Amino acid sequence: MLLKSKEMALLGVLLGLNQLFIILSSVVETNTIILMSGASLIVGVVIVEFGVKSGILFYAASCMLGFFLTFNKVEIITYILFFGMYSIIKHIIEVRIVNKKAQYAVKFTYFNLSLLIMYFVIKIFITLELHWWMILGGEILFFIYDYAFTIFINYYLNIIRPKIIK
What we know:
- By secondary structure, the chain is mainly alpha-helical.
- The chain has one domain (5-164).
- It contains six helices and no strands.
- It has helices at 5-27, 32-50, 52-69, 73-96, 100-125, 132-164.
């Protein structure tokens, strides 16, 4: 898994962009979820370019760096437990499971489990009341996020990547 200097430089730029999204998510309070989603898309790009192993290492580096650089430690929990990890989980699910309905069932299960874990972890730090309509809204937004994630990766592969990688 030795990387050439050009690949290492690309990973460094992508990690910097990833951290920019994470730091901005704690500075700009109104766009936290959108900025965390942007950070997770960067992990997806690393997986596409360098594979799952490099994606996992990139995710670990982004979590550690994000924990030290971000101002709001509770928000980084959402990146660590869901957004950053979702790129890896999505790739593994879509490679190993052929049936689309089964893919969505596994993704849906992952989302609900990570939501449950985030709820209990965040509840340690702040008082949080969760209603059924919040969970339903989150599940609907999750499917929109998954669809947008797929569109972004296809856009990256077909339009952005040919311009960057020559």
